Fold this protein.
Amino acid sequence: ETGVTQSPTHLIKTRGQQVTLRCSSQSGHNTVSWYQQALGQGPQFIFQYYREEENGRGNFPPRFSGLQFPNYSSELNVNALELDDSALYLCASSPDRDGSPLHFGNGTRLTVT
Amino acid sequence: QKEVEQDPGPLSVPEGAIVSLNCTYSNSAFQYFMWYRQYSRKGPELLMYTYSSGNKEDGRFTAQVDKSSKYISLFIRDSQPSDSATYLCAMRGLTGGGNKLTFGTGTQLKVEL
């Protein structure tokens, strides 16, 4: 049990819509990272937040955005959904921003039709 | 060419066998190396976390890192049906980039009775 919880577990959206995914990190973990895992692939880094500020970003367009809140919860927002956005979205937390191993939640399975 | 290459399998072995899982990488800046286990419909679970070259043992699991060859391995002794899962290697640099991990595609392992 990692202490990282994500909601919802599954979600179906239509192309062009917007979606918000939520994550609750382990207490005391100041860093949250989001990853996208397409079917049959390894997770790809989207971005990281440290103490409510973006602290690193992968090769994802600006329509992927996030928020981190003081209560160790965070959100991933995706605008103008595309079919290729269908994937498992994983949230991971760690106590600091550089060096600690990441512990993942079970993810949100997003299907875009 | 991908930064991290991992044979996707599937790999099928009998119960009790020794399993060898491998990844190669091209980025010489990688210093931290991890192995995650991912069951179907679950998030990745951290198995092993190593820094730089050498071996690390934890129960039935042994992780090896050979930086000169840019090659890492995970050995599972006395494999059990409960070890059936996808195994992901992951790595990151020493500083900077936050907690951005670069993953392999994962190797699907099935341990049969």
